[in-house]
Structures are given as structure tokens and as C-alpha cells.
Write a structure and sequence with these properties.
This protein has one domain: Thiolase/Chalcone synthase (Peroxisomal Thiolase, Chain A, domain 1, 3-Layer(aba) Sandwich), CATH 3.40.47. It is built from 13 helices and 14 strands. Helices cover 32% and strands 18% of the residues. GO terms for molecular function: 3-oxoacyl-[acyl-carrier-protein] synthase activity.
Length: 417
């Protein structure tokens, strides 16, 4: 069967460097660090005392208090992001067929704050069970897509993908496939996460995954730098409205770009460490190129997973070099996690928005805090150090990899009639 074309007609973002798509792009192009001392709880006794939290966000500016109290933060973020994306898309909610619009969202952890609060409350009550009646519906990861669908009345496919830090990319790939198979006309997709909690920070500290650069937190997220010491935890998320091309064209929609390919693979190697030869990353990118019917030399920019870890960064670059070979030196590469921190299950969503914006503005966001490139990484590769770079961008590849060996890759392309 002939697959339908899928385009991006709306975007939303809620990030540590901007609470709207416009603010987010300004933060990206100006190389702003979203890292600050943690305010969500007292981090004094923690090895890491900073994170990339949202700034100036008040949920009641967007959601009535009585509704917000029934949602964990990650669901609140999802609803706010989706609202911006739907409004940006210009979809006429009075006329559109809501039976054919879905919500496929991503979250790696779900309601961690809710779970943590209820367990602490149980302990404070000497294990006498006094649970909030909203505990379960707030905590479960699928509640985000449920709340989004209820807000807009979208009755198409509705669920949340969970594949650690690849969750949002997996959600976007699923939405992409449903639309090109003709099962939906549009989908709200992306992801959100709210893991800056005691359990989130403490758990990643126990894994020795987080940076502990408490005295210089603004430069702590430094992908590909030889002095990096771990990733910086972030929160928030991003969203896209994916739409079948002919449907979008018929209603005169603004079209940002086309989504042309998605690739998925598994490392089948280790629960937290990437494959040392980057095999899974290679397969995911290769699968995405094959799906898009593209060659490696068609890619202009790669938004890498680039978490700022000693194991992950070199392996991803190795996979890129193995697949793209000499074309590696013609592309621009950058990690926007240097600015936003790592949004875990929401990472692929904010990075997809960055990929679309890069095409729109013909500008590669920088990898900030890159002072001395790791000796394991080829010094001739353009890692877009510290400053945004204007260049011709027709096609962007965006990677996300997660604990469990999950890999998911997206390819966005400048719109052609």
C-alpha cells in the first residue's frame, strides 16, 4: 500500500530554558544554560544539588486548581504543552473529526513525585494506610495522554509509551505510523517528565549518573567535553501535532516540515550502559534512513542523544562515524541537552521541537560548555561548540537512547510539494 505523508503542523514546549516554543528557541540559539540550584526540595544532603528546573511556571495559569490537583506534574506539563501545540496547529475543534485524532505521549517514569509523596505520607502515619484517592490515577504513566485527550475530546488511539529516555521518540514514531497507514488524520504526540524529586535525584546519584559539579552548575552539562562528570537532570517536555499531509493542505494549515522516517533498535547488551561499539545506535539510525528512503549523505544535522556521560557520548559518535563515514565531517552535530539538561522520557520531544526549529530557522543550536573535546572523539567533527551556527539544513536526524538498551531515531525534512 502507498503510505501517506506526515507533516508537523503544531508545536508546544515547556523547558528549563523557555516555557513556550518561542522562548525555547531563543534559549537554544543564545546558548542559555537551564541549570540552577534545586528548588523543588531541600537538596542539602544530596550529592547533586542542582538541576534544570522550569522557571516561573504556575500551573494554575493554565489549568484550574481543582483539575490540577488530580494530576501529577508530568501530566500537568503534558496538558500545557499539548494546549500550545493544538493552538499553534490551527485545528478547528468544532469541525475536525475527533474520532480520527489520537494522543500518543511518552514518559519514562510517570508520576514519581506523587508516588514519593504517598510513600512518605504512609511512613509519617506509621504505615497506617491513608492514601489520596487520586494516588493511582495521578501516578500511572498513561494518565498524561488520558488528560490530554479529555481536554480536547480526541477519541483516536490513546496511550503512553515507556522506553526510558527513548520514550518520546517511540511515541512520535507510533503516531507517525498510525497516520501514514491512514488510521488517524492527526495526532498529539511528544512527551513529558517531572523527575526532579528526592527519589529521582537520589536514585540517579546512586547510579553515579549525575554531575556533582555543585560549585559550577551552569557548565555542568558538557556533552563531549573531556571533563564531563555526568548528566544534569531536567524537567518539562515538548509536543508536536503530526498530521496527514493532504488533510493539512486541504485546511490551509501552516506546515513546519515533514517527518519522513523513524528507526527503532535494541542494544541487547546492558540495562544501563550503551553497547561499547554503539551497535544499537547504528542500527536505529540505519533503520530510520531506510524508512525514509535516504542515504547518509542526505543528513545535514544530527541532534544527538549526547547526555554528557563518559560511556554514552563516545559510543554515539562512534556509531555515527561507522554509519556516515566521510559524510560525518560534512554534517553539523550538537547536543541540546547541554542547555536543557536531560528530560528523560521527555528528551526526544524537546529535541524534536529543536530539530524542527533548526530547519525553520536554518540554524544549528550549539553544544554549550564544550571547552576541551574528549580525546576519544574525533577532533575534526563539527560539534557546534558554544555558539549557534547558520547553515543550509534540509534534513535533521534526532537520536534518543534509553536504559534497557532502547534506541529510537527520527528524521525530519524541509517541506517539499
Amino acid at each position: 500500500m502507498e503510505l501517506k505523508r506526515v507533516v508537523v503542523t503544531g508545536m508546544g514546549a515547556l523547558t528549563p530554558i523557555g516555557n513556550t516554543v518561542e522562548e525555547y528557541w531563543n534559549g537554544l540559539k543564545n546558548g542559555v544554560s537551564g541549570a540552577n540550584p534545586i528548588t523543588h526540595f531541600d537538596p542539602t544532603e544530596f550529592k547533586t544539588q542542582f538541576a534544570c528546573e522550569l522557571k516561573g511556571f504556575e500551573v494554575t495559569d493554565f489549568i484550574p486548581r481543582q483539575d490540577a490537583r488530580k494530576m501529577d506534574l508530568f501530566s500537568q506539563y503534558g496538558v500545557v504543552i499539548a494546549t500550545e501545540a493544538v493552538e499553534d496547529s490551527g485545528l478547528d475543534l468544532e469541525k475536525v473529526n475527533k474520532d480520527k485524532i489520537g494522543v500518543i505521549w511518552g514518559s519514562g517514569i510517570g508520576g514519581l513525585k506523587t508516588f514519593e509523596e504517598e510513600v512518605l505520607n504512609l511512613a509519617d502515619n506509621n504505615l497506617v494506610p491513608k492514601f489520596n484517592p487520586f494516588f493511582i490515577p495521578k501516578m500511572i504513566a498513561d494518565s498524561a495522554s488520558g488528560h490530554i485527550s479529555m481536554k480536547f475530546g480526541f477519541r483516536g488511539p490513546n496511550y503512553v509509551t515507556v522506553s526510558a529516555c527513548a520514550s518520546a521518540n517511540n511515541a512520535i514514531i507510533d503516531a507517525f505510523n498510525y497516520i501514514r497507514l491512514g488510521r488517524m488524520i492527526a495526532c498529539v504526540t511528544g512527551g513529558s517528565e517531572a523527575a526532579v524529586t528526592r527519589a529521582g535525584v537520589g536514585g540517579f546519584n546512586a547510579l553515579r549518573a549525575l554531575s556533582t559539579r555543585n560549585d559550577d552548575y551552569k557548565t555542568a552539562s558538557r556533552p563531549y567535553d573531556k571533563d564531563r562528570d555526568g548528566f544534569v537532570l531536567g524537567e518539562g517536555g515538548g509536543g508536536l501535532i503530526l498530521e496527514e499531509y493532504e488533510h493539512a493542505k486541504a485546511r490551509g494549515a501552516k506546515i513546519y516540515c515533514e517527518l519522513v522516517g523513524g528507526g527503532i533498535s535494541s542494544d541487547a547488551y546492558h540495562i544501563t550502559a550503551p553497547h561499547p561499539e554503539g551497535v544499537g545506535a547504528y542500527l536505529s539510525m540505519e533503520d530510520a534512513l531506510d524508512d525514509a528512503k535516504m542515504k547518509p549523505e542526505d543528513i545535514d544535522y544530527i541532534n544527538t542523544h549526547g547526555t554528557s556521560t563518559g560511556l554514552g557520548d563516545p559510543q554515539e559518535i562512534k556509531a555515527i562515524q561507522n554509519l556516515f563515514k566521510e559524510h560525518t565531517y560534512n554534517m553539523s552535530i550538537s547536543s541540546t541537552k547541554s542547555m536543557t539538561g536531560h528530560l528523560l522520557g521527555g528528551a526526544g520531544a524537546v529535541e524534536s521541537v529543536a530539530a524542527v526549529l533548526a530547519i525553520q530557522h536554518q540554524t544549528v543550536p550549539p553544544t554549550i560548555n564544550l571547552f576541551n573535546v574528549d580525546e576519544e572523539i574525533d577532533q575534526k567533527i563539527d560539534l557546534t561548540p558554544n555558539k549557534a551556527k547558520e547553515r543550509k539544513i534540509n534534513t535533521v536526524l534526532s537520536n534518543c537512547f534509553g536504559f534497557g538498551g532502547h534506541n529510537a531515531t527520527l528524521i525530519f525534512k524541509k517541506m517539499e510539494e
